[in-house]
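RETRY 2/3 - previous attempt timed out on the joint model. Re-submitting the same 489-residue input unchanged.
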Amino acid sequence: MLGLSPTDWQAIEVTLRLCVYTTLILLVIATPIAWWLAGNRSPARVVVQAIVALPLVLPPTVLGFYLLIVLGPRGWIGSTLESLGLNHLAFSFEGILIASVIYSMPFAVQPLTEAFSNLGRRPTEVASSLGAGLVDRFFTVILPLTKGGFVVAATLTFAHTAGEFGVILMLGGSIPGETQVLSVLIYDHTEAMNYESAHRLSFLLLMFSFITLSVIYGINRRFAIAKL
Amino acid sequence: MSQFLFRAALLALMCLTGSPALSNTFTIAAAADLRFALDEIIEAFRDHHPQYQVRVVYGSSGKMTTQILNGAPYDLFFSADISFPERLHAAGMTASDPAVYALGRIVLWSNSLDASSLSLADLATDTRIRRIAIAQPAHAPYGQRAREALQAAGVWDAVQPKLVFGENIAHAAQMVESGAANVGIIALSLALFPRLAEHRYHLIDEQLHQPLTQGFVVTRRGANRPGVQAFSEFMAGEQAHTIMRRFGFAMPDADRPGRTD
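RETRY 2/3 succeeded.
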């Protein structure tokens, strides 16, 4: 189908798996961070904001380098895992998943922060005074009122993860079925002078990115949430 | 309740990361000069041993060595220079002694000029040549040999402003093939790949550089992995040698002491 090889399909599968997991994990992690950022005016807020936004300005190689050092067999996380009888995380799917979560963090946190700021604290305070618990407040008040923000955060995270390259190349190498995502495979196809395959996959990613961004701007018009 | 189920499903999904361990799969890290020859050899190997899945990752020998030292899951390592497997051996990362499997050569190649009529000296003086691609000498053996040859020919300083560096030798070849560089010093094995073989090459005198003694090793991780031993043996067999020779490699002398066993 589409003239794609088994290697191509395998890379598509790895990429989709990476994007889905990264998006789910980030929505869980980013929601409390964004909520805290939206309601906080202390100096600590600036620091957290800066840390969250770091991947926007850092070269992917810097993140890739540090993660390789920390997650590899000689790094403190990697060696701790090894001593527990587990595998270190360099050159593994779990490793690039951790990298993606960090690398796409701003794309989840920023739209949510924006949505929560627009919402303000008033609706949850009212719900609280009416006796709604924390979980109840989140699912019946916050989520329905800011779902545009969640859709934008999820879509942006998903798309940005699909577009990752440098971090994955450094930390994951290019192992088929494990860390060889689409962007890395395109690089590999080019190096092998396999231009037809590189074309097909590049076009696929181009269309995917264009459609995703169109969806985001469409949502944005309706909800006026993310500043892009 | 439905919300609880939804969240439980999310959690379960998150726990499902990682692919199952594939016991009949082994992974080869290979120098980029092997890119086309090894693909063919793996295909031939699979005809004889269909029970094994072979994954192969290509890159510069130096990069592969660094990756293995940092725990990359490679079972076999075919380097463009035996010094890299020897380094892994010294670091205790190997399960076999480094062994020579082939000898490589470097050539001048171009897809716009007739490289067979060019000499290394022309690289400095020919005004049609504005960009010369070589592999990164810092971690690619083919790049190191290219630098040595240019130095021996006395043109290293003169060609400096024209040099562009590929991450590995296949990348350097791709730079020339795409026209981004006018000429390149690439592996003979790549110049003989059908897509590139339409254009002629100039074989660089091997007296001008250290030999490309290509060595391989079984990593510690690959020690007991099924298929690794079979592949090592297949690589030393006549069928693999025939393919390697077709790609311009010379096979090591059987009597080279301590290297070929």
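The two ends of chain B are 66 Å apart (CA to CA). Closing ticket.
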